[in-house]
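Pilot study result, target chain (543 residues):
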Amino acid sequence: MRKMCSLLLILSLCLGLAACGAQSEITATSGTESDTGAETDTASDSTSDTASDSDLSNTLVYAGEGVSTINPVLESHGELTDIIFSGLMKYDANGQPIEDLAESYEYDADTFTYVFTLRQDVTWHDGEAFDAEDVVFTYKELTEDETLSSSITSNYEDITDVVAVDAYTVSITLNSYNAAILDYFTVGILPQHLLEGEDINTTSFNQSPVGTGRYKLVEWDTAGGMITLERNEDYYDKVPNIERVIYKTVGDETTKATMIRSGEADLAWLNANYAAQFADDENYNSWVFTTADYRGASMDMSSDFWQDNADSIGVLNYALDKQAIVDSVLNGQGCVAYSPIQLNPLGTNSDADIYSYDLEKFDEEMEALGWAKGSDGIYERNGQRFHFTIQTRDYEEERVDIANLMSSMLLQAGVEMEVVLVTAFDWTAGYDGFLAGYATQFDPDMIYTQFVTGASDNNMHYSNAEVDALLEEGRHTEDVETRKEIYGEFEEVYAEAPGILLVAYLDGNYVGVSGLEGLDTTRVLGHHAVGVMWNIEEWTLSR
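Predicted structure:
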C-alpha cells in the first residue's frame, strides 16, 4: 500500500509524463551543449550546390544535437565526427575495435609497441593523400600539446613515442601495457597538411572539417542550423547508399518530434515520451537501442557545500524512489542505476547495489551523520541547511523532469535540491553540480578520464585514492577475468563514496520515416544514444 501511494504521489508530480518501453527493436513497417559555430566555405567547387538545389529523394535529414565543433580530438561525443573522420581502428557491431585506416597491426609485448601498417588507398576529402605523418601529427597533438583543451587526453597518457617508420607504417610505443588502448586508437585522424602550426582549439578547421571518412562537409549554415554532408565517392571502403546527410541542429526535444511529424526530418533520437507517439503509426519506423547512458546529479566536489558535506551524498539514495522515476518519466523504458558501469560487461557487480528506497533508513543514516531536522523540516548540520543547487539545461525535457522529481522526493525527505534551469552548462558560476549523463558503452576504462583525480574529463573534481588505484590497475591489467574483479571492486568502493547521485539508465529511442531501413540495433550506444550511424553505409532511403 505504501508503494502504491508513493507511486500515485510521483505520478501526480509528473503531471502526465508519458513514455514507452522495451529493450528490443520495434519496427512499424508499412503497416555538449549549444548551437554555435561559423559558416564555412564549400568543401569543393564540385559539391558547392546545397541540398536545397538538388534532388532530395536520397537525402537523409537528421534532427540532431547542437554542434559548435567537428574535430574528433576536441569533440568525442557526436555523430558527425564518426562519419567525417576515420581512425586507425573502428568499432564493430559488438563494440570491439577492428582495423580501419590500419590495414593490419602487430604488438610487441616486450616493448609495449604497436606497429600499424596503413592502407595505401586513402585520400583526404580535399584530394590529398593520407599517410603516416598524419597519424604522427594527430597523436603528437594528443600527447604533447599542453594547450590542447580536450576531455580525452588522459586516454593517451601511456604513449611515450610515435614514429613514422615509412610512409605507410607507424610505430606507437607505450610505457606499459594498456588494456584499452586499441579502443582509443579509434580516434579520428587529423590532416597534418591543413593543421600543422594551427591552434587546434581555435582553428577554423573545426567548423570546416576535412577527413577521410564516409561523408564530407559541403556547407555549414549556422544561421539556418544546417550542416550538409555528401557521401565520399572516393571512400576506401563501402561507399554509402544515401547520397547526402543534412544534419539540423535542433534546440529542444519538442521541436525534434514536431520535425519528424511534419516531414522536416527523416530521423531523430527522441525521449520515451515523444517516441511513444509514433510507435503504432505505419508512416514511421521505430528502433529501440540498448544504451549505456545514465542520468544522475553529478556533484561538484570543489564547491563549498560538498567540501563540507561529501560524506552525505551516498545517503541521498535512500530518499529516491528511482523505480518510480523510471516508471513515470521513462515509462519503464530503462532501469534503476546503482553503478556508472553496471551495464558494461566488466561491470554489473550487484554487490555494489547497496541502497534501496527507504525513508526510515534515510532518517537513521542522516542522524548517524549528525544531521537533524530544523523547524521547517529541512535537515541541518553545524548550522548549515542541507541545500544544494543542480544546473539543468532547460531544453532537455527528460533531464528537467528527472531533476524535478528528484527535487520533490528529496524535499519530502528533508533535503533541498534546487534545480536551476540554464541554456548551457556553466562550470564557473558556482553551482553545486549538474544533472549529468554519461555512458561507458565500450571498455570500462572509459571512466578513467572522469573519475581519476585530475584526469582530463574530471570536471566535477572527484577524488578518491582507492578509486584512483583501482582504475589504474584495471587499465594496466591484461587478464579479462582479473579486470572484471577489479572493476567490480571499483563499483563497491565508489558506491560507498559516490560523486554522482545515480538515478536511471535509458534506452535509446529513434524514430524515422517508413522508407528508412538498415539501422542495426546490435551496437550498444553511448550518451544521448550516440553511435546510431555506425553502419550508415548500409542504410537505404526510399520515398
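One observation from the pilot: Residues 397-413 form the longest helix (17 residues). A full batch analysis is planned for the follow-on phase.
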